[in-house]
Amino acid sequence: MTKKVEVDFQKRLSKEDALYLIQNAPLLELSELASKKKLQLHPEKLTTFIVDRNINYTNVCWVDCKFCAFYRHKKDNDSYVLKFDEIDKKIDELLAIGGTQILFQGGVHPNLKIDYYEELVEHIHTKYPQITIHGFSAIEVDFIARVSKISILEVLKRLQAKGLSSIPGAGAEILSDRVRDIIAPKKLDTSKWLEIHRTAHSIGMKTTATMMFGTVETDEEIIEHWDLIRTLQDETDGFRAFIMWSFQGENTELTKEIPDIKPQSSNRYLRLLAVSRLYLDNFRNLQSSWVTQGSYIGQMALKFGANDLGSTMMEENVVKAAGAANRMNQEEMIRLIKDIDEFPAKRDTAYNILERF
Ligand code: SF4
User: Residues in the chain with pLDDT < 50?
Assistant: First the structure.
């Protein structure tokens, strides 16, 4: 029989304890521990969500991540760069359902420089000042700097001046250069991802941290990933949330190259989520990834440490291209939250409460 796991909530979880919990703790005990930690941070039992829309302004990308089924090359028939009026139409539709944020990300287009991005952000921000632009992940920021021959700090400051509010944590995958060299060899390395987030935090720009597991990483590498973001959070307090999801393998090069990579179980997802809640003691918000896990496990995630259901996802193209096509609207989210005796609330990008239900 597995021994009962004791966690001292007065102390930080060590790497060794995290490894022990991932590999040995019974699932229900992890749920109890993560729920206790969540209640310390959110005693009011409010579970939040945001009404937003993903807008992928281009699918053109040169980075060729092997786990990605979304990108196209410029010469491909179905490659695109959205025109400003197409973007406007999407934002108009979002406003019609009470949305407050756009998650604005693309592929990494080889030819677009800082002037294009400045014009784009300025256009959106001027026309829709009520919409928060949460956009451009570290890989885009890094490339804009390189192709425009300016520093990362300058990219971030110039986009911030035009109306960029915060940046998403995409592109972190697993912060281990061994793993990155296998699954996305052309992508920025661990230290660059951390540097971009540190730089954003230094100018008051908040970001999120993410993790995609389920490819070739070890449990130790997962914990190292958490440790790197926990350390940066200690330094800057600039991350608003942690969001974790499992690799979706359909239509990807990685699955063809390494057929041994199998879909991750719900048990594994919930297990890792619970331990992340314990390890990331300086992250107030953890999102449930119902988009990759489905609405039922998305709801269960709230019992394993998550306090936020993320976005209603009016539009999602990236994980859909790799086989995950779950959908949920605001009413369903409210029902799922009430169903586990918590109180639903709509929030904005900064996690301010906008409406309670
Ligand atoms: S994950 Fe992003 S950077 Fe990588 S290939 Fe896909 S679009 Fe490009």
Answer: 1
